[in-house]
Amino acid sequence: MDNIFEARDFIEEIVSRYETLIRAAVRFFLALLALSVVNSKLGYMERLDSTAVVVAVSLLCAIMPAGMIVFFSSLFIILHCYSLSLEAAIVVLAVFLLMFLLYFRFTPKDTMAVLLTPLSYVFGVPHIMPVIYGLKGSPLSALSVGFGVIAYYTVDFVAESEDKIKGMADATTVERFRTILDGVIKNNTMVAYVIAFAATVVAVSVIRRLPIAHAWTIAIAMGLVVDIIALLLLSVRLDADISVGGLMIGALISAAVAFLFKLFTFSVDYAKTERVQFEDDEYYYYVKAVPKIRSHGGRSRSRSGSGSGSRRSDEDL
Amino acid sequence: MKNSPDGTRVMLMTRMASFEDNEGKEAIRICNYFRSDYVCLNVLRAVVSATVSFFLVLVLYVYYDIDRLLQEIYTMDLMAMGRKLVTAYVIFAGAFGIIAYVVYSFRFDWAKKHLNDYNYALRELQNIQEVKDNG
Hints:
The complex is a heterodimer of chains A (317) and B (135). With 317 residues, chain A is mostly helical. Chain A has helices at residues 2-17, 19-41, 51-62, 67-84, 86-104, 113-122, 128-136, 141-160, 162-166, 173-185, 188-208, 215-237, 244-266, and strands at residues 274-279, 283-289, 307-308, 311-313. Chain A has three domains: 1-83, no CATH class; 85-270, no CATH class; 274-316, no CATH class. In chain A, helix 2 (19-41) runs parallel beside helix 4, helix 6 packs across helix 8 and helix 8 packs across helix 10 (173-185). Chain B is mainly α and 135 residues long. Chain B has one domain (5-134). Chain B is rod-shaped, with a radius of gyration of 27 Å. Chains A and B meet through helix 5, helix 10, strand 1 and strand 2 of A and helix 1, helix 3 and helix 5 of B.
């Protein structure tokens, strides 16, 4: 256990020291991962399905706000769908537009759920998302995760139906549009996951706020129990395609990841080092405010009053 | 340094600069408006979003069911359908507007509270400066 704490302290120190660089690197790799997954799953437009384009856009994302990763991923998806069929692009564009207009416009910070939830599906640990959003968000995050599930199944349907859509060359535009929209909307597995994940987010979020010992641990465990029960009931009720074995294994892996995540994220405050700049009548101030860090015997951090300041007069500049 | 007037002044200025760089940006932007203006503007934007979404769904629905609609258009009670659509739109946009009203009222109160704390620190800084200048 001591090794874990040491690793945590080490990561904490590194994050604190190179915060700006690490943020840019995380954005770059997240964009690279998201765009590569989109290209491997869809990849109908040859111009976009190139390493150079993916790396260039990822580099751009590294220096821009995190929301741009979602924007570029959505753009890639829509353009790939357009290459496959205009109707598929219209349906996907409509789904994304509705998500933005009805929800993410109000909670731009939660937009990453649309990216991270589909990625968690790709890596086989979708059950982790409602648990993490329940821990770090509010019960309203159920909507964010729900929209992430819808985004995943929309793209998944288009990818799985490639042959079917291409085979409808002789069909009318309306018939193609109807087939795609039916496939996206009338997907019982998606509905089951949306409801189960929403219930999980609410359960985790409520339990972790309770004034009880080990609230976070209980929240993770109970959240996964709610997730499993809800999915089992819904798979019977909606006749959804959910594998019980896969569900159990996925939940177990998610539990392990959730506890690791809790250890590294929720047990500590990765309060970032802040560099602020201001001036008064006599000086320019360039202050680096470093969060107080104590070793894990009695961990606590505080940002207040811990500034390690330096000031320079006009002549020094 | 910490307990000296200069130390307190630097700490106050650091905290204020940190606030201005982080959550303060949003709080200052919000508090540039009067409460009623800020809430009304955002409710209006929400209603516009709801309107665009409603018509987007309507267009998708009409296109999806266009064959049936074209066949039945002459036998349909268009007035009754129009009334239904208007009612559905008013309920949808109204509900969205009410939610936006609650959310943005809450956000304005949050920003106001943070900005009050900021102003309090500003006054404290002014007092320290006055003591320093006079003495």
